[in-house]
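Morning!

This is the sequence you dropped in the shared folder:
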Amino acid sequence: MTTAKFQRNTPQRKVILAELRKTHSHPTATELYEIVRERLPKISLGTVYRNLELLTEMGAIRKLEILGKEARFDGDLSKHYHVRCVRCSRVDDLVGVHPEQTTEESGDVNGWKILERRVEFVGICPECQHLGETGVN
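The structure's back. Tokens below.
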């Protein structure tokens, strides 16, 4: 067990978790900081970063590490895929596509013990598609 499981639940952590779970936009730490500051004006960006890392270690949230991009965070722990826009970097849940078999059930693959499977879908979000059609991009 990590020491993260024994951390006390601070008021700041409670607000960060509550705000993350209310949003479906998969915010970056900076974006979540701006949201949380509306409720806790004196909170620092460093506090948000530290708590997001701790909540990730505790298994309370999911950290989405997208290649070459700033990490985003998801308060929905159900098994689901994400899709990222190649133009604006927006990240959405991919509805209607469900993980068939978890890698935790897969065991060893070519001698590797698989801990999790990450599939990244990339595309162009509806807003960027519309901007492309109008010539504004």
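Headline: The first strand starts at residue 62 and ends at 64.

More detail when I'm at my desk.
O.
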